[in-house]
Every structure is written in C-alpha cells, then in structure tokens.
C-alpha cells in the first residue's frame, strides 16, 4: 500500500507541474494577448459609402457632422449582430405586405425601413402608447380612420396601419417639403418639425439641431436600409431558408358579433393562438360588433399549422 501512496503522490506532483507549465503558456503576457486579439476576434472600422440617399434625397456626407452621425449608426447596427439577423428574418416575412401598399400610395420604397426602426417589425407598444409595427398613437389612428378600443385595435392590423402611415407621410411631405423631413416628422410630429425649422431658420433636416432621438432617426433608417440591402458587405451570412416566411392566408368577412373566438377558430381547423397570431388587432377573445361593421379576418391556408 505504501508504494501505491508514493506513486499517487508522485503523480500528483507531476500533474501540478504540467498544469503550471500550461498556465504559464496561457498567461496574459503582452505578446500572447495581442496575438489573441489578432487571431480570435476582429472588429473593423466601416467605410461610410459614398452617395448614400434616402427616398432619392442625398445625404450630405461632405459635412463632417453628418459623416460622423452616419458612421455611428452604421457601426451600431452592424455590430448589434443578433438584432441585425432578426431584421433580415422579419423583413423577408413582412416587406412583401408593406411594399405594394407603399407603391399604391406613391410613397418611396425606403419608408419600409422606417417601420424597421420604429418597431423591429413587431407589434410593439411604446411607453407613450404608440402601438403596432408602425407605432401609431391612439389619437393619430382614430384621426386617420382606424378603430381603436379595448375590443378592436386596428393599429395592430399591418395592412390597415400601413395605409394610415402612408396617408400620414403624404400629409407630412406636403407640409414639410421633403421626404427626409417627412420621415423625421413621423418621429417628432409635423407641428414639432415645422416649429424647429422656423425657429432655426433652415429648410433641411441635416441643418437642424435636434434632440437625441429625432437627431438619430433618419440616420438609423438609412443605416438599416444600407445594411439590409447589402448583407454580405456587412458580414451577415445566411441562406434564404434561414429567413422567416409569410404564411399565406385568406380573408373571412364577419359582420356580426363573435361570442367565442376559440370556437370560431376551430371551425377553420386552427386554434385561438393561431387566429390571434394572424389577427393581433382582435384584442379580446370575442368581437362585440354592435354596429354590424364588416371585418376581414385572416385565416391561414390549410396545412401550415397542426392542431391537437
């Protein structure tokens, strides 16, 4: 037994020596620290592209202030990789719904990126109460014809909300004079932008001194447009099958009250959860509809979901 103990002791000493040698090899000396920085992880400065524009209006990158603000948004959104990937995935799913509505209203295609920075293409709700993909305030939604109450909130209906966003942007462009200012006005309000332009005696968004949020707003839109339009250039690698796909639906007209959407959904071979995924504007498990209004409810085509 004695020799076994001696052998184990010797083995322990040798193990400690080996561990010490490896520890010395991995010690953070200046030399190997720099080597790891070079070989294991790289962060690159980005070149701000020449000729950036929004809705056909040039970004004045010759201005050093404008250049630095554009550079900031490109860096922030390129190196926030997880968020960037989600934007690529959701864009594949929702842009095909948004794009034809923009075309119908004569709104430049670049405004789909406004929806990206407003909500991340989700049905978000802000602390101020702005809701849906287009982050429409309750009063604005009602002003432009949306039904907004506890039972039905059409700000969460992507098609209807996009129509309202288009109407608002056209009105803003007419009042403020450019698409860039109309985009900024979507964030700060038409009246707010008009007041700032008058107070500072300028006519361009890029000449205004603005608060942090509105001051970054248009640059963020342009940065997302640039990155989402050029994934390889900014280091995003994926296949088309890695992106989210739109589930095709058909519309069912309802002009009466619905007392139980769970039972209603089962009649179409789906469950309440799936019904809500495709109709988030239905805010309660029932539809009051005392007025007999006609609603269009989206039902996914058979085979896309399985229910127990």
UniProtKB/TrEMBL annotation:
Matches recorded under InterPro entries: Lysozyme-like_dom_sf, Transglycosylase_SLT_dom_1
Organism phylogeny: Bacteria, Pseudomonadati, Bacteroidota, Flavobacteriia, Flavobacteriales
Boundaries of every Transglycosylase SLT domain copy: 110-201
Name of this protein: Lytic transglycosylase domain-containing protein
Pfam families named in the record: SLT
Organism: Oceanihabitans sediminis
Superkingdom field: Bacteria
Signal peptide feature range: 1-23
The family this protein is said to belong to: Belongs to the transglycosylase Slt family.
Keywords linked to the UniProt accession: Signal
């Amino acid at each position: 037994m004695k020799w076994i103990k001696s052998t184990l002791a010797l083995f322990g000493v040798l193990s400690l020596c080996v561990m010490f040698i490896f520890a010395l090899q991995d010690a953070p000396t200046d030399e190997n620290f720099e080597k790891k920085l070079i070989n294991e992880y790289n962060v690159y400065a980005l070149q701000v592209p020449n000729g950036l524009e929004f809705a056909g209006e040039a970004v004045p990158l010759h201005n050093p202030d404008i250049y630095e603000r554009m550079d900031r948004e490109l860096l922030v959104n390129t190196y926030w990789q997880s968020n960037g990937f989600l934007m690529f995935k959701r864009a594949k799913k929702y842009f095909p719904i948004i794009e034809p509505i923009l075309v119908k209203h004569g709104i430049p295609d670049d405004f789909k990126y406004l929806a990206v920075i407003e909500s991340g293409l989700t049905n978000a709700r802000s602390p101020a109460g702005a809701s849906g993909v287009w982050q429409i305030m309750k009063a604005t939604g009602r002003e432009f014809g949306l039904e907004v109450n506890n039972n039905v909130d059409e700000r969460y209906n992507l098609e209807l909300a996009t129509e309202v966003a288009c109407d608002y942007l056209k009105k803003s462009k007419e009042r403020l004079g450019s698409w860039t200012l109309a985009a900024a006005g979507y964030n700060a309000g038409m009246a707010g932008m008009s007041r700032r332009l008058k107070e500072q005696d300028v006519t361009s968004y890029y000449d205004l001194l603005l608060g942090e949020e509105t001051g970054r707003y248009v640059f963020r839109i342009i940065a997302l447009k640039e990155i989402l339009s050029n994934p390889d250039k900014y280091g995003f690698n994926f296949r088309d099958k890695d992106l989210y796909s739109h589930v095709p639906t058909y519309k069912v007209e309802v002009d009466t009250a619905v007392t139980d959407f769970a039972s209603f959904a089962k009649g179409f071979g789906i469950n309440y959860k799936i019904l809500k995924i495709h109709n988030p504007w239905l805010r309660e498990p029932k539809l009051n509809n005392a007025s007999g209004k006609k609603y269009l409810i989206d039902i996914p085509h058979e085979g896309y979901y399985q229910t127990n």
